[in-house]
């Protein structure tokens, strides 16, 4: 080895332990590093400190707050911490409201909130996204005509898929075939997106507009001829004509009770054609609730709706209030008589199921509901037990979620576990 080569040999000591005068010396934590570490410590400690003084974070997005990751989860413990810390920062909703006020008041335009470079879908399976469109230009909320708001994720879903849609459909068919092979019936109810049913209030120009029509047409062309799929678009549009008003509120991403009732009827009719022939359905008490889209852009607003009475036998109203939470199995079994469905039903759904529960409980005599998002964690075993105990498996999925391919129930690991459990406990 030459003298020149020896001069370039790296020292055996870590660079932080070298003498300060050594040209390769580098302190373990420089001034900027220390500052960054302090900021990180404050960011992750703030949620814990706020809980200690009684402050609680608000759920300003239409999903549960991220749970504290398990220390036993390995490296994912560290990668999951930022989402937990962000969700549990108190006053986050106030900060968004202040940003909105300043942006509109000073600059005359909405703030840049919630733009994304990747999916923030809580049901994200971690698959590598495939897209030619920069979805970071799509806002969290698309502001439309006459004060209408649309969830930006509906646009993102059409411009960015984790899987090509025909591959997602192949996963759906595999699950369906396995469920039917176990002696059970399978129904897939697709809750259409708001922009699918009420597109006329979308702005003339917005990021991703070209993706929307093209992908929406492709999606429904794939699914509408599957005999186990409930296409609710036409019933919802017909109901709008009957009511003379939209079935999706202007400030909310979800349908009202009209959509929940229509889905309930469609499921029941698919399983037993003619079952609703004797039903008597009438408008009931009005209700008002906070809208889910305004808080995402620092605003507030309410939506108005109406409950419906449902008399399956034409005499008794069997619709009733049902607890909103179904992150653990929610069993409904107080309905019976003519016009009701008595076989055991296990239903996996999402936020669109919320407006359906009072009507599902009025029509199905033995039904258990569970949010499919729980399949990511400890809810998987509960889901498999529920489905194995059922004669019928119903799956409700929002159009935007199914479009992306980020559906936990169709991932090979989860689907294989479910089908293994069902095949071991067949229904004959």
UniProtKB/TrEMBL annotation:
Its principal location?
periplasm
Q: Where is the AlgX/AlgJ SGNH hydrolase-like domain?
A: 141-274
GO BP, one example? alginic acid biosynthetic process
Among the GO molecular function terms of this UniProt record, one is: transferase activity
Q: Which residues cross the membrane?
A: 34-55
A cellular component term from Gene Ontology for this protein is: periplasmic space
The superkingdom listed in its UniProt entry is: Bacteria
Q: Where is this region: Disordered?
A: 109-130
Pathway(s) this gene product operates in, as recorded in its UniProt entry: Glycan biosynthesis; alginate biosynthesis
Sorted alphabetically, the keyword list is: Alginate biosynthesis, Hydrolase, Membrane, Periplasm, Signal, Transferase, Transmembrane, Transmembrane helix
Q: What Pfam families would the database entry show? A: ALGX
Task: Name the InterPro entries on file.
Answer: ALGX/ALGJ_SGNH-like
Location in or out of the cell: Periplasm
Q: What is this protein called?
A: SGNH hydrolase-like domain-containing protein, acetyltransferase AlgX
Protein's organism = Actinokineospora alba
């Amino acid at each position: 080895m030459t003298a020149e080569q020896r001069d370039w040999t790296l020292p055996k000591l870590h660079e932080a332990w070298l003498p300060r005068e050594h040209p390769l010396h580098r302190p373990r934590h420089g001034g900027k590093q220390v500052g960054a570490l302090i900021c990180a410590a404050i960011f992750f400690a703030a949620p814990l400190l706020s809980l200690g003084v009684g402050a609680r974070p608000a759920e300003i997005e239409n999903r549960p707050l991220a749970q504290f990751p398990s220390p036993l989860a390995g490296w994912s413990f560290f990668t999951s911490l930022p989402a937990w810390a962000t969700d549990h920062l108190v006053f986050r909703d106030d900060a968004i409201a202040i940003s909105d006020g300043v942006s509109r008041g000073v600059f005359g335009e909405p703030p840049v909130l919630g733009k994304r470079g990747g999916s923030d879908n809580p049901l994200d399976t971690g698959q590598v996204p495939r897209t030619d469109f920069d979805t970071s230009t799509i806002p969290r909320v698309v502001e439309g005509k006459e004060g209408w708001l649309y969830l930006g994720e509906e646009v993102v879903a059409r411009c960015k898929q984790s899987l090509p849609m025909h591959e997602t459909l192949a996963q759906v068919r595999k699950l369906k075939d396995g469920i039917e092979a176990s002696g059970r019936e399978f129904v897939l109810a697709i809750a259409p997106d708001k922009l699918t049913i009420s597109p006329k209030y979308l702005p003339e120009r917005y990021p991703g507009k070209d993706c929307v029509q093209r992908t929406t047409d492709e999606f429904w062309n794939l699914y509408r001829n599957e005999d186990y799929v409930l296409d609710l678009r036409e019933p919802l549009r017909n109901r709008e004509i009957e009511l003379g008003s939209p079935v999706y509120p202007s400030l909310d991403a979800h349908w009202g009770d009209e959509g929940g009732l229509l889905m309930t009827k469609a499921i029941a009719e698919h399983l037993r054609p003619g079952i609703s022939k004797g039903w008597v359905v009438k408008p009931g008490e009005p209700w008002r609730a906070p809208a889910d889209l305004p808080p995402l852009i620092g605003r507030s607003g309410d939506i108005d709706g109406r409950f419906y009475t449902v008399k399956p036998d034409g005499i008794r109203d069997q619709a009733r209030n049902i607890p909103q939470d179904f992150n653990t199995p929610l069993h409904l079994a107080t309905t019976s008589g003519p016009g009701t469905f008595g076989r055991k039903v296990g239903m996996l759904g999402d936020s669109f199921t919320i407006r359906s529960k009072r009507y599902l409980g009025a029509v199905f005599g033995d039904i258990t509901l569970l949010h499919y998002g729980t399949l990511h964690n400890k809810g998987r075993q509960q889901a498999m037990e529920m489905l194995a105990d059922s004669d019928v498996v119903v799956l409700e999925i929002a159009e935007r979620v199914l479009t992306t391919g980020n559906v936990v129930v169709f991932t090979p690991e989860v689907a294989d576990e479910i089908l293994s459990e069902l095949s071991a406990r067949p229904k004959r």
